[in-house]
Amino acid sequence: DAKTTQPNSMESNEEEPVHLPCNHSTISGTDYIHWYRQLPSQGPEYVIHGLTSNVNNRMASLAIAEDRKSSTLILHRATLRDAAVYYCILRGLFGNEKLTFGTGTRLTIIP
Amino acid sequence: ETGVTQSPTHLIKTRGQQVTLRCSSQSGHNTVSWYQQALGQGPQFIFQYYREEENGRGNFPPRFSGLQFPNYSSELNVNALELDDSALYLCASSYLQGRYNEQFFGPGTRLTVL
After folding, report:
1. What is the predicted pLDDT for the residue at A1?
2. Distance (Å, rounded) from C-alpha B11 to C-alpha B61?
3. What is the model's pLDDT at position B102?
4. Least packed by Cβ within 10 Å: which of A6, A107, B76, B83?
5. Residue A103 at interface with chain B, using a CB cutoff of 8 Å
6. Does B75 contact chain A (CB < 8 Å)?
7. pLDDT tens digits, B14-59
8. Which residues contact A74 (CB under 8 A, 6 or more apart)?
9. Which of A74, A58, A64 is nearest to A107 (CA)?
């Protein structure tokens, strides 16, 4: 499986934007970039995914580098509820594959 | 729409015992995956079931086994429990449609092996 590298932890002030980086230098041409997050005492939840173009949804935006070797999850206005562990995951074209989680980035929001 | 539910919430067993964990998939989903999450780690894939057949397995020994039922609920069975089996066990359901399927996770079952 292609690997991803994320910082262990990040802090951000409430109501400010947060940029969570992910490196995936061995990504293949058919790998989608997925982000899940895990709130305290809950199972992971889907955030967003993309292949080549930047993506937006109600939760976040995903910015993908032109060479696809890195991506950034953007939370436009962090709230206390966004405090969670964020996982960047690569999945193949056919989405029945398992999710391979790393240790993720623990995001702390400062009130 | 009912989400993914798991039971029990917490469980304490002793080494050598057997345990069964249960999961009810989200309505309309035909695939269920199980993950083990040790403290401070990301979830690790155990196996996946699609239409009652095992459809992929991670690096877990045969004493980890599963079932998926016609109503798409599922069980995870672990025999001969070891101390290292203490973890949060997560169930995730999805609708396999040949291309991409977002996985919906339950809240997990916290298993403690003494």
Report:
1. 59
2. 21
3. 84
4. B83
5. yes
6. no
7. 999 999 999 999 888 888 999 999 999 999 999 999 889 998 899 9
8. A17, A18, A19, A20, A60, A61, A62, A63
9. A74
